[in-house]
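Whiteboard transcription, Tuesday session. T.W. wrote the structure tokens on the left side:
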């Protein structure tokens, strides 16, 4: 992820008598990540192939400034392909004003942003057909730097052309002031995580997240917001009820303790799944697990609870598995949202990895479905801890595993067949289509 995002514009001269703000900001706009052009196109009218589109930089700058908070912080949602509101805020194709913008999507995981451009398919309504398929990732810092540089470029152009006071300048100044104010920035980030534009979220739910009277932890509540989105209040209510309860856990809840590791838990500079896999291998080594499956008894001992935790059929009413720390001695209450043993083992692995990795020991550890870097870490840790890749390859012992091979390996490691398939896909041993994912 060393490649930088660049948004550049080669300005056109102003025609005689032209005094429209969108016209004086027209030019050849090029967007690239490293040496990959996201705006490479074929122009049938001009009979050319070029790396830049002809459009108004003012229009693009307005879209970027207006959606800055959601672009920077809001993850991809399960329904993002059909969610019109999400796509309007994350797909550059919606920038509008009559221009044929490229289909470039941004989706944040908090630390980084996935950047994807899509080639034009099917019938073309105008002369422009975009050519490149690009799937890459940039750091949050790289995104911020690129947008800052582009907005500065556009505003400087407008100032030089006699448009010093514009709606764009006012909007961008407001965004910059919000970013510089920690309290305002937190409020805007939570709005974005809940799927709202600035000042569109119900103030009551943002206030609950900000005030955190149950002292669950700011980072933990951001994860809950990323899953709950517009339903964050409903998702958060049962968690708050449990956090405020003085009784021992019941109905899918179990008390235990969290183990520790002697070696450092954090490695900077690598992707979450890389950090997680390394930590999982370290944990297995330190706890003497080798390459063998982690039994329910062993997992229960690590979590200071009983093996029946993984076979008990009761479950909580929570929309996600969580841990609530109950004291400074490492004790916790663990709640499951599923009665399936393999699901409970996987959830336990996720929550255990989170505990080992993150140094801000907040009261709440959620294992959500949100596509954040923290959830990526949790899933990767649980995969490698419960089903080590090297041991999995030895168990399968074939370069073309079939359904029976996968089912047998899943039974051996006491995980789901889907987790085995996912591990093999992520490691390049199976085609991604085997998961029935839609590209």
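and on the right, the sequence the group agreed on:
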């Amino acid at each position: 992820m060393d490649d930088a995002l660049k948004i550049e514009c080669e300005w056109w001269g102003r025609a005689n008598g032209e005094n429209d703000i969108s016209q004086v900001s027209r030019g050849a706009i090029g967007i690239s990540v490293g040496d990959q052009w996201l705006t490479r196109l074929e122009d049938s009218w001009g009979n050319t192939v070029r790396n830049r589109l002809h459009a108004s930089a003012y229009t693009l700058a307005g879209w970027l400034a207006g959606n800055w908070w959601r672009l920077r912080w809001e993850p991809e949602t399960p329904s993002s392909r059909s969610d019109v509101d999400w796509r309007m805020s994350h797909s550059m194709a919606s920038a509008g004003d009559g221009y044929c913008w490229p289909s470039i999507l941004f989706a944040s995981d908090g630390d980084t942003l996935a950047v994807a451009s899509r080639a034009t398919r099917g019938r073309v309504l105008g002369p422009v057909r975009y050519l490149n398929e690009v799937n890459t990732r940039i750091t949050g810092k790289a995104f911020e730097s690129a947008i800052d540089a582009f907005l500065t470029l556009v505003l400087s152009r407008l100032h030089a052309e006699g448009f010093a006071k514009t709606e764009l300048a006012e909007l961008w100044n407001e965004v910059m002031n919000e970013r510089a104010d920690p309290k305002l920035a937190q409020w805007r980030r939570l709005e974005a995580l809940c799927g709202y534009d600035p000042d569109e979220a119900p103030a009551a739910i943002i206030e609950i997240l900000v005030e955190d009277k149950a002292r669950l932890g700011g980072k933990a509540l951001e994860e809950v917001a990323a899953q709950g989105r517009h339903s964050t209040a409903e998702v958060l209510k049962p968690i708050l009820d449990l956090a405020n309860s003085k009784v021992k856990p019941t109905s899918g809840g179990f008390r235990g303790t969290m183990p520790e590791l002697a070696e450092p838990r954090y490695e900077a500079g690598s992707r979450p799944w890389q950090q997680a896999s390394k930590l999982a291998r370290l944990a297995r080594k330190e706890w003497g697990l080798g390459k063998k499956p982690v039994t329910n008894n062993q997992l229960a001992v690590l979590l200071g609870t009983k093996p029946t935790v993984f076979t008990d059929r009761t479950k909580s009413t929570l929309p996600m598995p969580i841990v609530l720390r109950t004291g400074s001695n490492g004790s916790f209450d663990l709640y499951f949202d599923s009665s399936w043993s393999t699901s409970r083992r996987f959830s336990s692995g996720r929550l255990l990895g989170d505990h080992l990795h993150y140094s801000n020991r907040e009261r709440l550890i959620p294992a959500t479905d949100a596509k954040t870097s923290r959830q990526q870490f949790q899933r990767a840790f649980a995969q490698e801890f419960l089903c080590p890749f090297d041991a999995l390859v030895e168990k399968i012992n074939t370069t073309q595993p079939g359904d029976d091979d996968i089912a047998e390996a899943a039974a051996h490691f006491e995980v789901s067949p889907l987790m085995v398939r996912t591990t093999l896909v992520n490691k390049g041993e199976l085609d991604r289509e085997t998961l029935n994912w839609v590209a």
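Someone added at the bottom: Residues 200 and 310 are 42 Å apart (CA to CA).
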